[in-house]
Amino acid sequence: MKVILHDLGLQSHEQLLTKCDEALFADGKYAPCQGCFGCWTKHPAECFIKDKLQKACRVLGRADELIIITKNLYGAYSVPIKNVMDRTIGASTPLSTFRGWEMHHVLRYKKHRLMKVLVYGDITDKEKETFTYMVKRNALNDGYKKTEVLFFTSAEEAEAAL
Amino acid sequence: MKTLFINCSPKKSFSASSYLAAFQRLFVKGEKVTKKLRNKTDYAGMFQELQDADTVVLCMPLYVDGLPSHVLAFFEEAEPFFLENGLRPNLYCIANNGFIEGRQNESLMRVVENFCQRAGINWQGGVGIGGGVMLNVTRVILMVQAAIFFALYLISGIQTGKFWNTGYLAAFLPNAGVFLFLNAGVISFLLLMGLHINKASFFGKHYTRILIPSLVFVPCANVFFFILSLFQGGLFRGWLAKK
Q1: pLDDT above 80 (res B165)
Q2: pTM of the predicted model as reported, rounded to 2 decimal places
Q3: What is the ipTM, given to two decimal places?
Q4: Are residues B132 and B220 in the same domain?
């Protein structure tokens, strides 16, 4: 399953829907994670906050290929995108194991094939380094076999590259 | 010199970040203020405190290899605030994550450093701590034990009329010793960072952890989540199922 997570806007969302199996528009109209671990310990793979991200981890967890289109913010994801990622840790289980000689959570779903991140907006060389490093960390954490990080000056360019 | 400690945990109380902030406060001289950053309603008070802060110490949990989204949102507002007001405080960061390796906080540290560069403030480094959740659990256990021992001491004192009784203290001390041992790495690095905060000097990035071998820590973490899920009911609601 190909999933696109983006912060591009509603108009782009309609377009992106035609290019994947599931598209998640990170519009920021949802609450941030409260760090309660309830999506692991109380109601697995479901957040206690009743908004559009309540069961979003089930979509990201099933992605074979995840494409994230995000604005750069200090070498990290934009706030709405990071909010989605924080609220979807239910895609893994509370149990831990060793992966890449480090402690990580056991995945709830199978391993994923590709995590592709398209970053747009003003970005410094150091932020590019940070972003590339962070995506590799995300891939290890979430069980992605391959990563790709591409940088674009504008959102339009990033969208067109798909 | 004023140091502002910002507890960035979204939790109302008993967070690992609040515990680490409290520890760091012990090693810092001068005026000290601690504020919580949980949501947008905290911004106004935070900006007021930042006006005359010489040093800022951010204490936060690692969320998905980065900053919690509500902290990133605050950074977006703080960047123009620092630039427009010409403020250049020294910034230090204490990050903690649930995994055992403190180094897993590296990407968070890099993002904070990038923020400092954009906002024109002085990045002075920080400590990345592994096993933050477990350290916090040891803190809570020690507090409960201390309360129990103190209650027993009081009851025995009232019953016997003898308050000079070191038995309970002697029974409590080994527990405190274990706590101090597990926290030794964290305490050492926070002490060192405190010295740098007091001198307003560059500390750099350092990583430490709860002093337990990884092979012991991982099963302990699994048992912890098993018990938590048992009491909260998740264990019976498709705990590991592909939902």
Answers
A1: no
A2: 0.95
A3: 0.97
A4: no
